Backbone:
């Protein structure tokens, strides 16, 4: 295992300390590294909290800031955070308008966020994100997994929260964005959890895992490595098959790297995906390309399509200032 | 070789087509993929042109846009662009105030940019970037190599050009920023040039290359993998030894990933580097953390320190809108 770390036991806390140094204008890290929160809160705004296992950086802490999250609770690598982290975060960032949890669909995350929501006596104030169309049930889930579409949900709900929408309206919006967002990924290599010290799974020299999860969970099938155009055709085809969009529909296209794939290759995938979407009569009106929901150093990528109307585009374009997404300010 | 590509012969053009799709609001790609330029030019502004081998994305095309470059000339992977690309770019973006070339110090790049400058009859309108303190001469250079500090030079000169500075003043500024900027990197793994099909060099399971170049060129020495704190100590120590800064000096710290290192590990390095700089009496006033000057999928990172005063901080903070760096707009 070759990693730029001091010790497998301190990688998370060392990284959070570095995040706090690098983005002191945006965020702070709570005592005992329990959560990351905005430096400055907006009184009366609904607080948005997400979280999950680490190793997917910049998700979620990299999306704390104006126009996205108020707090993020980091678990150990690929391990859910605990309810006490979520409760501490909620107590810290709730300025009176309530707290909405944005939760990726994994058994540990949903169980612990539900426990926190129950303890807050707000058991329904959660948006469940399940955009991965690769498999219906998986190693760590009942139902679809939550993957890179999380960025789009956090952005849309985050922008709407800045406008002062109510908690109920934000939950409705979050559910609606999730419904119209779909993703699927492919892995060319595995990744190594620091505490494990060896790769999570193995892929032969000429194999790829089609439909892989962001923890290296199995996808639909293991197949020989194919050309980018064929991979893009399957990923976009699966996503479009799930979304069932009308011709002429406008979308956001997110080509998301898993951490170990060069940006050059992601742009090759952008070109192929855009061509295939155009062929299906779908128009990409906004692009996001890069490493946003990663799996440590895994090579591969996912394609996310999110159907948008003028209101959604306005939310997407609204000012945002986080470690990983920034525009308009 | 496992890559998300169609063919080794089309990887560059496919990637440029994807870049053009993803960032159509900012840039266009010229016919025959000879250069990437801003969609909209500012009449009377000095035009800034950079370029070099591809495989370092987002450098340089990802820095085309308001507040940075006017055009970038991409060579094949790890191969210099040609003088005719530079001349075509200059003709396209010169709005009357002249063209300044920003060139990383590699033999092929300097020779070809010099030929273009001579043909334009402006042989001295070039800033030579040579921030890598690892080695004095190298595989492809006489003198120090140009590496991640290039981002800082392109940003500072780019911001100054928007203010309307003259070509002579911009060259003076670029030379000055280069002088006060130093970098050094480490590789944990090699990288594979698509057309070659096999790794550029080999590293044993427990080795790293200290002082590596961004094409995998040898650095100072090959040593056993060390803890992040020890790597950061050597990289920051070498950089500070070169810059000879006074205690109390303010700096920008760029922790740059080479493409295959998780963001989590880069933040571990930020934490260690910041601690070491503080120990030397140096204050980091701005951070940039991420994959900006990469070596395909190489694992590793570099540390860049650039000494700044209030004027330089104002240039850094000025609005920028490129594919890879964006704030204030």
Residues:
């Amino acid at each position: 295992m070759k990693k730029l770390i001091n010790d497998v036991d301190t990688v998370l806390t060392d990284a959070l300390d570095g995040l706090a140094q690098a983005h002191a204008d945006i965020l702070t890290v709570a005592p005992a590294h329990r959560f990351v929160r905005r430096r400055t809160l907006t009184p009366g705004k609904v607080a948005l909290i997400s979280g999950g296992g680490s190793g997917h950086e910049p998700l979620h802490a990299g999306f704390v800031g104006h126009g996205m999250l108020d707090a993020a609770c980091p678990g150990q690598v690929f391990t859910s955070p605990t309810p006490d982290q979520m409760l501490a975060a909620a107590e810290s960032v709730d300025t009176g308008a309530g707290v909405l949890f944005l939760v990726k669909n994994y058994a540990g995350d949903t169980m612990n966020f539900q426990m926190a929501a129950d303890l807050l006596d707000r058991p329904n104030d959660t948006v469940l994100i399940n955009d991965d169309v690769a498999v219906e049930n998986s190693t760590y889930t009942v139902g679809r997994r939550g993957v890179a579409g999380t960025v789009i949900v956090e952005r849309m709900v985050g922008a709407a929260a800045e406008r002062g929408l109510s908690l109920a309206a934000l939950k409705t919006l979050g559910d609606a964005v999730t419904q119209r967002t779909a993703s699927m990924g492919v892995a060319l290599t595995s990744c190594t959890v620091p505490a494990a010290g060896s790769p999570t799974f193995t892929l032969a020299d000429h194999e790829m895992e089609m439909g892989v999860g962001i923890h290296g969970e199995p996808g639909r099938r293991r197949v020989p490595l194919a050309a980018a155009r064929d991979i893009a055709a399957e990923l976009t085809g699966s996503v479009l098959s799930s979304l069932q969009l009308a011709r002429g529909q406008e979308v956001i296209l997110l080509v998301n790297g898993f951490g170990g794939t060069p940006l050059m290759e992601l742009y090759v995938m952008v070109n192929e995906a855009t061509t295939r979407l155009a062929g299906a009569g779908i128009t990409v009106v906004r692009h996001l390309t890069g490493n946003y929901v990663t799996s440590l150093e895994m090579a591969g990528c996912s394609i996310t399509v999110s159907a948008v109307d003028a209101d959604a585009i306005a939310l997407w374009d609204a000012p945002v200032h986080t470690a990983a997404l920034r525009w308009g300010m």
About this structure: Chain A has a mean pLDDT of 97.
